[in-house]
Amino acid sequence: MSGIPMERPLLGEDEAAALSALAARVRELAEATVLTAVGTAEAAAVAAEIEALTARLAAGRRDAPPFVPSGERRMDRQIGNPVTGALNPLAPPVELTVGSDGIVRGEFTLSTVYEGPPSYVHGGVSAMVLDQVLGMAAAASGTPGMTATLETRYRRPTPLGVPLSVEAKASRVEGRKVYASGTICGPDGRVTVEATAMFIMPQRFVPHS
Ligand SMILES: CCCCCCCCCCCCCC(=O)SCCNC(=O)CCNC(=O)[C@H](O)C(C)(C)COP(=O)(O)OP(=O)(O)OC[C@H]1O[C@@H](n2cnc3c(N)ncnc32)[C@H](O)[C@@H]1OP(=O)(O)O
């Protein structure tokens, strides 16, 4: 069992917008931190200011990341998600849409905070993005589930700082199992990473089980 409660408070529109704007500033801070060359004294002074700002935010603390009321699909509500969540400074965030053809698509750019090999995206970050997008494709098929397997094939390096596209689709459903596949492409449209995955709806979530 997780130590984080399942029940979540729902954010209103104004609070979601304000906290998303805060997360955007923290994302900028993370990149500025990785790239800064201000010197040790200035870095120490900024660290002290950030410590004070963190204490201000922690003065009112929730037990778990909040949700927003869902749109058409329940999967839209996790605003703290590390891939798509506007509220999460660790998320790029990747904005995804689900087409009437069941294909989940998104465009995103990854900054230097996601660097693996110099000037390229970390392979684990690509896998995380694909896990999310394939998982949403599985959910869009009507059978959401937990990732049971995820296989990635890194065809060529994925560049940082340029627009990337990602898409995925569920290929088949077998009872509680859903199979999905997808790709990340560079700005030239060539595939950099391919993935296939299998998601399983836990027995406890099966209606009337
Ligand atoms: C659910 C709601 C989610 C909402 C999502 C919204 C979209 C957001 C997108 C989010 C995206 C991000 C998502 C994330 O990040 S999810 C986080 C990463 N994934 C996990 O933490 C999953 C951990 N594992 C489990 O919870 C359980 O093991 C699961 C749920 C996977 C199965 O436990 P369950 O008790 O249900 O299984 P069972 O024992 O009755 O077996 C049933 C069948 O499955 C077969 N099998 C089992 N495991 C595996 C395996 N690993 N590989 C291959 N096969 C496996 C098994 O042989 C059997 O086959 P058969 O004998 O019937 O042929």
Characterization of the model:
- With 209 residues, this protein is an alpha+beta fold.
- The chain folds into two domains: 1-68; 94-205, Roll (Thiol Ester Dehydrase, Chain A), CATH 3.10.129.
- It has helices spanning 13-35, 40-58, 123-140, and strands spanning 95-98, 104-108, 146-154, 164-174, 177-185, 191-200.
- Strands 1-2-4-5-6-3 form a six-stranded antiparallel sheet, with helices on one face.
- The longest helix is centred in the N-terminal third of the chain and has 23 residues, at 13-35.
- Tetradecanoyl-COA is lined by residues 75, 131-132, 135-136, 139, 144-149, 200-203, 205.
Which fold name corresponds to the CATH topology of the largest domain?
A: Thiol Ester Dehydrase, Chain A
Tell how many strands the DSSP assignment holds. 6
* Fraction in beta strands: 15-25%
Residue share in helices?
25-40%
Question: Can you summarize the main beta sheet?
Answer: 6 strands, antiparallel
What's the CATH first level of the largest domain?
Alpha Beta
Q: Tell me the strand order in the biggest sheet.
A: 1-2-4-5-6-3
Going by helix content, strand content and strand pairing, the class is alpha+beta
Mean pLDDT: 95
What is the CATH superfamily classification of the largest domain? Answer: Hotdog Thioesterase
Q: Could you say which small molecules are bound to this protein? A: tetradecanoyl-COA
